Amino acid sequence: MSRLRDGELAAAFDAAAAAYDPLVAANPGYHRQLLRAAGALALPHGGAGLRVLDLGCGTGASTAALLRAAPRARITAVDASAGMLDRAAAKRWPPRVTFVHATAEALAAAGVHGPFDAVFAAYLVRNLTDPLPVLSAVRELLAPGGLLAVQDYTLSGARRHRLVWHAVCRGLIVPAGALSPGGAALYRHLWRSVLDFDTAPAFARRLRVAGFTGVRVSPAGGWQHGVLHTFLARTPPPGPQ
Known about the structure:
Elements: H1 6-25, H2 30-39, E1 51-55, H3 61-69, E2 74-79, H4 82-89, E3 97-101, E4 116-122, H5 131-141, E5 142-153, H6 159-178, H7 185-196, H8 200-209, E6 213-219, E7 228-234
Parallel strand pairs: 1-2, 1-4, 2-3, 4-5
Antiparallel strand pairs: 5-7, 6-7
Helix pairs in contact: 1-4, 2-3, 6-7
């Protein structure tokens, strides 16, 4: 198994974009878990008057979850894969949703500037070559007291959950991906990237190192328990004037 990096990973997502929505729809609970994570932001008044950044929006599934959770927010959705972003932008969206082609490491160069009231990053952070500078940059994009929700495959650290991940990847994810446009490389990357990434407790510590406070970790249910987690964190509130 080998991991893909940066440009080659974006190219793999480009190649897989046409079949990506049907593949994730075959994952029981995928959209429900996205909505749960977006809802954890608990933005008041349906997000009225608030700016939200959807970082790593893919084909727009996370954007749709944000829109359901905060239907009155202004959402900027960003992805590094032009193919995935084209699929997202081709769907029907209200005018307050905009899409930007950019990597997570170069948001300012693409014209993405804060302050944002909330940032949602689903299935993104473990794909980054160096997550800490991106998390620190996200903190700077957030308004004081702003919220970050991260959803990703992060193993609990228990051996049984690692075995579950191996079994699901060997038996379902990689074989299904091999039949799709672009082949199995992206899905082998998914398998490896989860094994190489932080455990859930380690990622919670990483968020604190990046300057976030009030970090909370919520595991998914069902077969994804101990495999998928949602992290909610906040930037420090404004200091005394």
